[in-house]
Amino acid sequence: MNSLEGKVAVVTGAASGIGKAIAQTLALEGAAVAIADIKLDAANAVAREIAAQGGRAIGVAMDVTAEAEVDRGIDAVAAEFGSIDILVSNAGIQIVNPIEQYAFADWKKMLAVHLDGAFLTTRAAVRHMYKGGRGGVVIYTGSVHSHEASPLKSAYVTACVRMWCVRASCARRWSTSRSRSRPGNWASAKTKSSRGSCSATRWMASSRPWKTLRRPCCF
Ligand SMILES: NC(=O)c1ccc[n+]([C@@H]2O[C@H](COP(=O)([O-])OP(=O)(O)OC[C@H]3O[C@@H](n4cnc5c(N)ncnc54)[C@H](O)[C@@H]3O)[C@@H](O)[C@H]2O)c1
Q: Has residue 175 been placed in a domain?
């Protein structure tokens, strides 16, 4: 039996890139996976790819900045698969510009996708994880810029650092002694386009944190 058999995962921004590789890896490990993305056609295409390889997946239309859409999408996944055990908050964008040329609208969009997205999807998912003391796992895709500045990425660096704070706060909320922190190092997933390169996903599969946790934990 695969290590994530019976588990349900939602991966945001999974219609391409790193999120797609994470979703494929989770499906390979046996999880039913929701491909949640603002691009529904592309999300459905990834779900079909996974199904063609014998996995279980659905595409879900979700703009992670839209409160009602996130709540609806997460609830729909729970209704379809019975629960939610894993959330990978991964949807992200990149807008590079010197700060003196950075449009305010772009600044707000960056923070909305990364921070509002992390908040809204976490809130919606943990409501299901709490049900029946089931517990679960939340993973935030950060970046080297969660720790290190970059001259042309003022908004992105700010978003990454503050997402780290969301993660830390949730870890406290869900009891630091029972949750573990793992930097989401999927950086090689996109460049290698390899399902096996998602080290955190593999670690999550092998250590099975939900076996011992009765509350959500985050990484
Ligand atoms: N590519 C890198 O080198 C790198 C490095 C470190 C961190 N990251 C982070 O990894 C994550 C994924 O990056 P990627 O390189 O795979 O990017 P990508 O552009 O290939 O994929 C991002 C996905 O997010 C989706 N998306 C964008 N806005 C959305 C929204 N509002 N709601 C829902 N979905 C939305 C896009 O449609 C796309 O499918 C991002 O959070 C990014 O900041 C990327």
A: yes
